Amino acid sequence: MLEELRQCAEGSRHDVSPLYDGDMMGKNAHHTLDHAFRSFIEQKAFPCVGAKATLAKDQMEVVIASDIRSSQNDLEIAEKIFKFSRRYKDHPKMYQSFVVIFEGPRHLSEELFERYLWQRVQSLSDKDVVYGNRYDGRVSHDPDGPDFSLSFGEEAYFVVGLHPNASRKARRFLTPTLVFNLHDQFETLRESGKYGGMRTTILDRDQSYSGSVNPMLAEHGVESEARQYSGRKVNGHWKCPFHYAGNNDAKN
What we know:
The chain is built from seven helices and five strands. By secondary structure, it is an alpha+beta fold. The chain has one domain. Strands 1-2-5-4-3 form a five-stranded mixed β-sheet, with helices on both faces. Helix 1 (2-9) packs parallel to helix 2 (27-42) and helix 4 (74-90) packs across helix 5 (110-130). The radius of gyration is 17 Å and the shape is globular.
């Protein structure tokens, strides 16, 4: 397993098959997963120029967790993303991301990955409430609303899920991974007039990389972004399982 990861990190392979079903052990595996993810983004054709900018500025915080099906690391992840949010408030530099890479499993279907993605973010949100954090008032906690975003440490986030069996090539990484992108950064790009151009660039690059336009993409404020998180193509009857456990006066 470690050798397979090293090969990916060295750029020798980027399309993967669901071979992993168990835990990887040791710090070397953790380091190699981190390296592999960074190499995945560094591919010349990788479409997300925002992720490339984050990597170039060395502003990507990576956390390695065990199993996306398990709550084992949820408290640790929650505490780290709360700290990440506080640091961003103190130093709101552009192009920062918080990434959780799970060691496995690698055999999950798109439907199962989606289920466990929402289990993990639900658990993190519940802990956000317990810690007394307020929901970011610039967004809605209603997952059916067009202004929905998740909120951790009083900062709103858009989540990008990746896993080995994703139908979109740009979402196809070695192990289940969740990338938390700050909503405030999208708003900063809009205010500066750069958002439209960057979005068009990413869409064009993704079409070249994946061979088709992503059917799930929509702008914030048009329809709920929750439909985009897992990367799976869902129909109009899809229902987001997220439920905010707090009761503050966040936008809804």
